[in-house]
Amino acid sequence: MSISLDQIxxxxxxxxxxxxxxxxxxxxxxxDQDKALELLRKKGxxxxxxxxxxxxxxxxxxxxQSGDKTVLVKVLCETDFVAKNQDFIDxxxxxxxxxxxxxxxxxxxxxxxxxSLKMGEKLVLANPTLVQGNVxxxxxxxxxxLGAAVELEGASADLAKQVAMHVTASNPxxxxxxDVPQDLVDKEYVIWNDEMQKxxxxxxxxxxxxxxxxxxxxxxxxxxxxxxxxxxxxxxxxFLKNNSAELKNFVNLGV
Length: 255
Hints:
The chain has 255 residues and is of the alpha+beta class. Among the domains are: 5-51, Helicase, Ruva Protein, domain 3; 54-132, Tetrahydropterin Synthase, Chain A. Helices cover 46% and strands 20% of the residues. A 3-stranded antiparallel sheet has the order 1-2-3. It has a 3-stranded antiparallel sheet with strand order 4-5-6. The mean pLDDT is 90.
């Protein structure tokens, strides 16, 4: 009998199994969803259905580069055991390559479902991000838990990679101090004001102290004003200026 795309989609949504496997099961079951699901379970292909509510707190950062484009993505799994599996790491980079080829909005649910069956765990793609520019450096830490891409102007990819390494070490959240969200600063002000109340310092100097705390807080979160890990005597912006380079963009992912 003829199996419709809607029937296949319904079964795939229930199981996470590939389109081909769903179509074959439905054909064998004469189009009956329950029978097709049971066939997949007997074959061990529908284990993904029981994984949907499981936590995916482990995983790796994967990337792929070609020309002036780089894609970073988190591929999440259930256990550290799978996250350290080289086949899983290679497959995660393969998914990043597909996103680079098809676009970061591409639907890779079929590929993820097949890898999930192979690994025996629930898997999730998270934060697929495209960085595009003439000079891009990428660094993924040896444990594959941290990864960053940095776009520079007027520099080499090796220099950009050094800054990407800094990003994974120092975990900046913005490019510049003024980019730090005000709501984060406001939360800190609650703590700082409480400290002032308990400090016994004259109220006349509170504003100056609070302004200093805000400046330090913003600089600590901004990539440009963090002390460069390779040369802590200068901040990142100064290091780049000394090397005739300029920071344009960065992506920071961690599992």
